[in-house]
Amino acid sequence: MLAEAGINAGMIRPISLWPYPYEAFDKIPSSTKAVISVELSRGQMIDDVKIGCCGRFPVSLCSRVGGMLLTPQEIAADAKKVLGVE
Q: How many domains does the chain have?
């Protein structure tokens, strides 16, 4: 969906949380404008994402609690909002 809107996006999907895959964040290109932590929680992983980014990118949270999954449309809309693209 983001590609259709002309937005390049990638994803890091941790398979395990210990050890946290910090080395995956080293591969994020320097041209990246923002990183979004998508979580089904109140942001328990955002600190790890910020640590992984080492201050190179702004980090935002897209989350929901209560068992309802975030839809791809909601995640794409949040990404556009973070990037200032509507």
A: 1
